[in-house]
C-alpha cells in the first residue's frame, strides 16, 4: 500500500487527536471495570457518546485512515526469519511502567492489507501512555501465510514481546490484546491459547495471554462469516478451506468455538458496519455471558467499520475510554 507520508511529532499528534484517556470527558464504567478485573458478566449497552473538538464525521473510509498522521515506532523487531515476521514497538515518552496493548491489524487476512493502516491507532495509543506492540504477520498470498502460518506468526509475535520489554527496561502493569476485524478474530483466538490442549494444532505450554481482550469489529464466528458472499467473507474460506471439508480448522481458530476464552472480553461494534455484521459481536457476547465469562459489548451508533481505528472519531474515543477502564 502507499499513502501520503504525514509524520508529526508526538506533541503535534496529541494536539491533532486530543489528549488521550486522561482528557476524555467520560467517566469510568464500574460495570466495565468489573469485566476487566475478571468480575461477573454484565448487560450490553450503548456506550456514552463523547463529543470533542475536531471529531471526524462517521463513518470514515479505509482511505481516510491511511491519510491520518503517524509517528514512527521506537523499535522494529523481528520474531522470525521471514520478511513479514516483525513487530513495531511503540514506547511512551517518559514512563518505564505502563500497560501494554498488543495491536493486531485486520484486512481480511489478505496480503494486500498490511500493518500501515493501524499506525495511526498505535500512535494514538502511545500518546495516551500505552506501550504498543503492533505486529505484522504473513497472510493469504504471502509465502508461508494462510493456514497455518498466519496463526503461527501471531503466536510467535506475542510470545516475542516479553523479552523485548525486558531488554528495554519496561515494566508491564497490565496486558491487553486488541485486534480489528480479521485482527479481532486473531486477538480473540490468541487470548484463548492457554486453554488449548496438547492435541490442539496451536498448543504451546508457555502461551502468553492477556488480562483482557478487545475485539474491534471482530469476526467471531468463522463458519457463519465464511458462508457470506462478500470478498472479505470469502477470504475466511480461503484462509481455512470449506467449513464442510475442514471442520477441525474452524473449531481450532473460530472464537465462538473457543468459549470460554479464559479472559474477559470487550467487543466494540459499529451499528453501520458494512463489512462485519453487528451480529458477530452481539452473538459472541451473548454466548460468553451464557457460559459465565465476563464480557462487555460496546454498541457504537453511527459507526462503520474503520471508525474504530480512526483516532479522530467518537467510536475510537469510546474504545480508548473503555481501554482506560481495563488498564
Describe the structure.
The chain is an alpha/beta fold and 327 residues long. The protein has one domain: Rossmann fold, CATH 3.40.50.1820. It has helices at 10-17, 30-36, 62-66, 119-127, 149-167, 182-191, 222-226, 231-240, 247-253, 255-258, 279-290, 314-325, and strands spanning 45-46, 75-78, 86-90, 97-104, 131-135, 171-180, 212-216, 265-270, 295-300. The protein has a 9-stranded mixed beta sheet with strand order 1-9-8-7-6-4-5-3-2, with helices on both faces. Helix 11 (279-290) links the parallel strand 8 and strand 9.
Helix content: 25-40%
- Looking at this structure, what is the CATH superfamily? Alpha/Beta hydrolase fold, catalytic domain
**What would you call the shape?**
globular
Lateral strand order in the biggest sheet: 1-9-8-7-6-4-5-3-2
Structural class: alpha/beta
Rg, Å, rounded: 18 Å
Q: Return the CATH architecture.
A: 3-Layer(aba) Sandwich
**How much of the polypeptide forms β-strand, as a percent range?**
15-25%
